[in-house]
Amino acid sequence: MSEPVIRMSGIKKSYKMGGNVLNVLKGISLTVNEGEFLAILGPSGSGKSTLMNIIGCMDSFDEGEYYLSGQAIHSMNDNMLTDVRNEYIGFIFQKYHLISKYTILRNVMMPLLIRGETAAQAEMTARERLIQLGMGERMDHKPAELSGGQQQRAAIARALVGDPKILLADEPTGALDSATGKEVLKLFRELNEKGHTIVMITHDLNVAQNAGRIVRIVDGELFEE
Ligand SMILES: Nc1ncnc2c1ncn2[C@@H]1O[C@H](COP(=O)(O)OP(=O)(O)OP(=O)(O)O)[C@@H](O)[C@H]1O
Ligand SMILES: [Mg+2]
Question: What domains can be seen in the chain, in order of their start residue?
Answer without folding.
Answer: 6-224 (3.40.50.300)
